[in-house]
Amino acid sequence: MERIRTAVIGTGFMGRVHLEALRRVENVDVVEIAATSQDKARAAAAGYNVLNATGDWQDVIRDPSIDAVHVTTPNVSHFPIVKAALEAGKHVLCEKPLAMSVEEAQILTDLVAAKKLRGGLCHNLRYYPMVQQMRRMREAGSFGDILVVQGTYSQDWMLYESDWNWRVDPKVSGDSRVMADIGSHFFDMAEHVTGLKVSAVCSDWQIFYPTRKQPKGGGESFSGKLGAAGETVDTPIVTEDFGATLFRMGRARGAMTASQVSAGRKNGLVLEIYGTKGGVTWRQESPEELWLGHRDAPNQVLLKDPSLMGEKARGFADYPGGHTEGYPDTFKQLFRRFYASISDPSLTPDYPQMADGLRQMKILTAEMASHKAHAWVDVPA
Ligand code: SOE
């Protein structure tokens, strides 16, 4: 099989997740790592046995031997890097969000189509095996017509006033924090699994800490794990710690919350779908289980086991029952499909596209407008 030469730009938490998952894709060689400094890039390259390291991402763009690029930098630089990579004829896999605005996301979506390149977006959570099982059961009509979609994405890593992360800075991360970072995963999954589109939203956001204690010497409470020590400066906060959104999906109705201040919830994405024939619930904190709800029979819990899964969902479970597949495996599944579509240009891509990133920017923009106006806002198609 032809080998594909790829580069990873960004060496934070997501950069490391991408580098690890890329090791599990058979026909890819990671040939360069780019970071904000030569030292950081060299350290990451040494850790992942990659030959080339650079402190300037433009080096990657200028190298004609590189076929594909992973963009895992903070949000504000997604647009310029993805644009430059596409213009240079490289396939791109970008972390979410695709861009800082609908306008930017539209430019990238048009560009990838015009250039006839592959453009993927890391809404990886779709690829937990039991999320695919839920999707395929819905397609087969197991839940009937969908009436209600509800759930949450709850975390606790910003619970204290002393918690800090680059995502707090709107110039780097955007005007929304919680809804952009994790609310977008909820909506991507809800649309993917139900096959329905969010048509209108009514959203209410809250900032619990008007200021937070920013560490003077840098440091973060998410990737840093144990928090930052030392002197801090009180910094005004303008992005939400929590958001709640009512939404319409055609005839179906829904409600969701997203939070970074829910004590004890580490990565609590929950999606519940209720239809005319039955209900289903999936929880990211126990991802191998699917709860199946019935009105006239005892409820069931389906444990991930390829032999018990539908044929199409089975392709997303690589290990036998009882052998847990989790967060890192979702990237493996996405990357394999991305690179398969590069190797075989005739393949219809079956992974999130840049257009899906544009879609999330439209939902997010409508939520923000709704919160500001205290009113329902339509989401354009
Ligand atoms: C941090 O909130 C984060 O890593 C998100 O950025 C990811 O997209 C999500 O998968 C887990 O939480």
Characterise the protein shown here.
The protein is built from 11 helices and 17 strands. With 381 residues, the protein is of the alpha/beta class. It is globular. Alpha-L-sorbopyranose binds next to helix 8.
Query: Given the helix and strand composition, which structural class is it?
Result: alpha/beta
What Rg, in angstroms, do the CA atoms define? 21 Å
**What is the average of the pLDDT values?**
96
**Residue fraction in strands:** 15-25%
CATH fold-level topology of the largest domain: Dihydrodipicolinate Reductase, domain 2
CATH class of the largest domain: Alpha Beta
Number of strands: 17
Number of helices: 11
Widest β-sheet, arrangement of strands: 16-15-14-13-7-12-11-8-17
Main beta sheet strand tally, sense and closure: 9 strands, mixed
CATH superfamily of the largest domain: Dihydrodipicolinate Reductase, domain 2
Q: From N to C, what is the helix and strand string? A: EHEHEHEHEHEHEHHEEEEEEEEEHHHE
Write a brief structural summary:
This protein is an alpha/beta fold. 32% of the residues lie in helices and 24% in strands.
Summarize the SSE layout with pairings.
Blueprint: E1 4-9, H1 13-22, E2 28-34, H2 38-47, E3 52-54, H3 58-62, E4 68-71, H4 78-87, E5 91-94, H5 102-115, E6 119-121, H6 129-139, E7 146-154, H7 170-173, H8 178-194, E8 200-206, E9 211-215, E10 232-236, E11 242-249, E12 252-259, E13 268-275, E14 279-283, E15 289-293, E16 300-303, H9 311-314, H10 327-343, H11 354-373, E17 377-378
Parallel strand pairs: 1-2, 1-4, 2-3, 4-5, 5-6, 7-12
Antiparallel strand pairs: 7-13, 8-11, 8-17, 9-10, 11-12, 13-14, 14-15, 15-16
Helix pairs in contact: 1-10, 4-5, 5-11, 6-8, 8-11
This protein binds alpha-L-sorbopyranose.
The site of alpha-L-sorbopyranose has 5 residues, from helix 8.
